[in-house]
Specification:
This protein is of the alpha+beta class. It contains 15 helices and 16 strands. The protein folds into 4 domains: about 1-145; about 155-215, SH3 type barrels (Roll); about 220-305, 2-Layer Sandwich (Alpha-Beta Plaits), CATH 3.30.70.100; about 345-475, Sandwich (Jelly Rolls), CATH 2.60.120. A hairpin with a 2-residue loop joins β12 and β13.
Length: about 500
Amino acid sequence: MDLDIILIDTFLNIVGLILLCVLRVIGKKRRFQKKTVFLINIFSLYFIVRLLKIAVDPLGFTKLIQWISLIEALLLALAVIKTAMFAVLELILNSRKGVEIPKIIQDTIFVIFYFFLIMVILKETLNINLTSILTTSAVLTMVLGLSIQDNLSNLFSGLAIQLEKPFSIGEWIEFEGVKGKVKELNWRSVKLLTLENDLLIIPNNKIIKENVVNFNRPTHLHIARFNVGVSYKHPPNDVKQSILSILREEKDIAHEPKPIIRLVDYGDFSITYEIRYYLTNFNRILQIEDSITTKIWYAFRRDGIHIPFPIRDVNLRTISDDHLARERENEITNLVTILKKVDIFTPLSDDELRSLALGGRAMFFAAGESVIKEGDEGDSMFLVLRGEVDVVITSAGYTRSVATLSRDDFFGERSLMTGEDRNATITALTDCKIFIIDKANFKSVISAHQEVLTQISEILSKREFELHEKKEEATKRVSERQVQENSSQILKNIMRFLGF
């Protein structure tokens, strides 16, 4: 009998050592590293306790040996169950079959098997029969039942959540007014990462009783909305068109279904519009709302649409007409100084430049907004008064940034002079203030001195050749990249065909 026990112990030791080696190999894969480290530590602890038992056994401390044997058996049972679950659930079902078992079900399986083995181990090592103790002691059973009542409630609630699947890990939900992303589902609670980057832990038996909004179902599209008040003097259709122009350029807003702008209220001092749009990425709900509200301010400023202040009793401070005239004069003087630096306007006199400044208008653009787009119609040019813009051209199907323009730089002059379509896309890199000169303004200035058009056409021709050279350079670089990409694809086809 002693020989049989020795053989069994030796066999278990060999199996344990083999499992340790296998786990170390599997643990090199990053996705399994955390779980394999835990299993290796359990097996290592088991062998340490086993060596301790071997060292103490000759001393004849019977009780101590029994307790060490109990710890040894519990560690072995833990290691065996965890290793078996890892092999079946992770290596076979998840990695090979693509079936992911929820953590709460994994925990439930572990608790059931481990509790059963604990009862067997206590019976064999210390001769303790938990079954008889629990069945014969009504008081103990009642106390035990009351103490685990909440845990059992959370456990069964968690199982119900797993079966019904009202939400899954990675989805965004709202619970009692708090929005968060589901990070974990376990036997006790649901963990949410809120928009404020805080971790909210909700017991399963609580979340199953309350209303939960899932922002990712039935589709990933979610309607977001907010209101904006606009002055009564602006026609509603003009306001709606101004807002829609902003929404069309926002990246994380769905184009279908289309955004909706609704007039919802005639307030005391403003008309209230509700802006409704479909989010494609709920993770960025706050950033998208900030981007839209910011760009609406710039769009309203450009389109002359006013957001009224609330009506209040105020004390007025009168600003004289002379003060306003001096401010306007300083603004015009600064514009004339800047216009003198524009090479195509060098043939114009100071009075003509002043007329251009008086007839133009300044507009504001937020970072990321398009000022003009390649291929669009146009009859105006632009002068950068503040900020930076990016010049992007399209060549052979590829887009490439060719220049960055800043204060005192200009663009769009060809469309102003000839009415040709825009030959580049200009996007604001930072918040920009841009001065616009349109056809009517320019025509009124040079109508009495048409001879300056000859000089202007020469300057335009020089600038056009410079832009053409940049486009040819871009085309050359694109062609080289296309050759490299095609070469890589041909190499892949050859390797695949030859079986390399």
